[in-house]
Write a structure and sequence with these properties.
This protein is α+β, with helices and mostly antiparallel strands. The chain is 34% helix and 22% strand. The chain is elongated and about 55 Å long.
């Protein structure tokens, strides 16, 4: 019995190839070895290049702007938000409410831009206040 196999047609790629100077590659690789890069969610050279080009085009009005942070869900012990400027696959950020202060799992800090988003969002901070949390010196702390 002869079997035939139909292969799918080539799908158009979602990516293009761009060459960048070696000195930029070296600088990006050096940055990727830092704790700052890890805290920001950058793992690969493409993450940095994509973010840089996106920001450049956004500043010139050629790339759509959107809200940086979006509330996704609230749980008893955490709030999940989406960071639209984070590299793909690293968009989810959880802010945990345990012990005596809030803690961001992305930044590994109790005071950061993700927590700042919650502080500035009445629909998020007001329910926390009702459950014994307050804002003090830019941090969310248990009263």
């Amino acid at each position: 019995m002869k079997m035939s196999r139909n292969y799918p047609e080539d799908k158009p790629s979602k990516h293009g190839t761009v060459r960048i100077p070696k000195d930029l590659v070296n600088a990006i690789e050096e940055f990727l070895r830092t704790d700052q890069a890890k805290k920001m969610g950058f793992l690969y050279i493409t993450d940095i290049v994509t973010e840089g080009v996106r920001e450049f085009l956004r500043n010139l009005g050629y790339y759509p702007t959107r809200r940086r942070f979006e509330h996704y869900n609230a749980y008893e012990d955490r709030i999940s938000i989406i960071d639209n400027d984070a590299p793909k696959g690293k968009e989810w950020v959880d802010i945990w409410f345990t012990g005596d202060q809030a803690f961001c799992d992305r930044c590994e800090e109790s005071e950061c831009e993700h927590i700042g988003f919650i502080i500035q969002s009445p629909e998020l901070i007001d329910p926390l206040k009702e459950h014994g949390w307050s804002v003090k010196d830019g941090k969310i702390v248990r009263r």
